[in-house]
Design a protein that fits this description.
Layout lengths: L1 H28 L1 H12 E6 L6 E2 L5 E13 L7 H15 L3 H8 L7 E4 L4 H10 L4 E10 L7 H4 L1 E2 L4 E3 H5 L1 H4 L4 E7 L5 E3 L6 H4 L4 E2 L4 H18 L4 E6 L6 E7 L11 H4 L2 H4 L9 H11 L8 E2 L4 E4 L2 E4 L6 E2 L1 H7 L2 H11 L1 H10 L26 H8 L3
Parallel strand pairs: 2-10
Antiparallel strand pairs: 1-8, 2-3, 3-4, 3-5, 6-7, 8-9, 11-12, 13-16, 14-15
């Protein structure tokens, strides 16, 4: 009996010594490794995405806003076996409607603790991922660009890609709209929830500038509606229309056609193209008033002077210049009212090539307006030294 008691005591003492030795090893010799593992499992360094600033119309109506939506990332180190990765890949590919191979590739990036799986989900997809409750799969809020007016002023506003503005003002003003990202420390609690150690940063620190445009949404909408009717009626490929406030030069509407939704811009650059800014177009008869003004300034034309407009047809410089209707004798005011190509050409010839081109340049023709939109065309004027005689005439009436 004593021998049995001694053996049992020795066995218990040996077991206790083993446990004590293991505890000492863990707390003294293996402490740094285990502390590192604990930090890796519970601590995260999250990058909070910047929030783009608001774009609004002249009356304060929101044209482009930023709202929070769910994005999903994974911690590949949480999936230790091929079987666990395979099960997760099956479920996640179905929930996110992603190729299984792509999901599995992201889950297999061992040594990493943060890999984006899919960003800016719609609410149903986020709910499906949340229901899976996988350890190592987290949802985090990210800002997404929203255009409340849908197609309104799409060519002006442009749209945003994953990282930056791609077209329109979103691209041109990207630096001021973008905002600033921040890195924050987070800890995962016992239930697996991510807790920010220092609280949520002030949204103002992440948000870019607010941009207020001169566009009036009501006028913009009316311009787009009427332009769409005109394009369809003419069977045209596209078109554009601009409404300016005469006294200030403010752009009240800048409509483009065909239309597109900035939230879903598609892949056709020709639809995104802001023709009003990026295309070169002949000014037509609108140029005649500038030609007459320059002729007054140079003293080659008097306000009450009569000019003969050839009754609608003028054989000149080997060509025939036409008016849309016969005009005989006319003062400069009548020339503008009747829009006579023939008399506009005669006034241009009085100016001569050098003075005509110099006068148009002084008015800003051939230069960018710096309206603030990307890709603006400079415009084109002939070289006086190389212009043919007929080019002097056609330039004077806008072709």
């Amino acid at each position: 009996m004593r021998l049995r008691a001694a053996l049992l005591g020795a066995a218990l003492l040996a077991l206790f010594a083993t446990v004590l030795g293991r505890a000492a090893f863990v707390q003294v010799f293996d402490r740094s490794r285990l502390s590192r593992l604990q930090r890796d499992q519970t601590r995260r360094e999250l990058l909070l995405a910047p929030r783009r600033g608001l774009i609004e119309g002249r009356n304060g109506e929101a044209l482009a806003v930023t709202r929070d939506v769910d994005s999903v990332f994974v911690d590949p180190s949480a999936f230790e076996t091929d079987k666990s990765r395979s099960i997760a890949a099956d479920a996640l590919s179905h929930s996110l409607q992603m190729p299984r191979a792509k999901v599995l590739e992201k889950l297999s990036q061992q040594g990493k603790h943060f890999v984006w799986l899919k960003r800016k989900l719609d609410e149903p997809a986020a709910a499906r991922v949340r229901a899976l409750a996988f350890d190592g799969v987290e949802l985090v809020k990210e800002p997404k660009r929203i255009y409340p007016q849908r197609e309104l002023a799409a060519q002006v506003l442009g749209f945003v890609g994953e990282e930056a503005g791609q077209e329109g003002l979103e691209r041109e003003l990207d630096e001021v709209l973008r905002g600033k990202s921040q890195q924050v420390q987070a800890t995962r609690d016992a239930r697996g929830n991510m807790v920010l150690e220092h609280g949520v940063p002030d949204p103002a620190e992440l948000t870019g500038a607010t941009v207020t445009l001169t566009l009036d949404s009501a006028i913009q909408h009316a311009a787009e509606r009427e332009l769409d009717k005109a394009v369809k009626s003419a069977g045209a490929v596209g078109g554009w229309a601009i409404v300016l406030e005469v006294k200030s030069g403010a752009v009240l509407a800048l409509a483009g056609n065909p239309l597109f939704d900035s939230s879903k811009p598609g892949r056709d650059p020709q639809i995104w193209r802001d023709r009003a800014v990026q295309d070169q177009l002949e000014p037509g008869s609108t140029i005649k008033s500038f030609v007459v003004a320059r002729a007054f300034e140079e003293g080659v034309l008097k306000p009450d002077e009569l000019l003969y407009c050839e009754h609608g047809v003028w054989p000149h410089a080997g060509r025939k210049i036409h008016d849309t209707h016969p005009v005989d004798w006319a003062t400069p005011a009548t020339v503008l009212r009747e829009s006579s190509n023939i008399c506009a050409a005669k006034i241009g010839e009085r100016l001569g090539k050098e003075k005509l081109i110099a006068g148009l340049k002084a008015f800003g023709f051939g230069e960018r307006t710096n309206v603030g939109l990307p890709g603006e065309a400079r415009g084109s004027l002939g070289d006086p030294a190389k212009m043919a005689q007929i080019a002097l005439d056609t330039t004077s009436f806008g072709q």
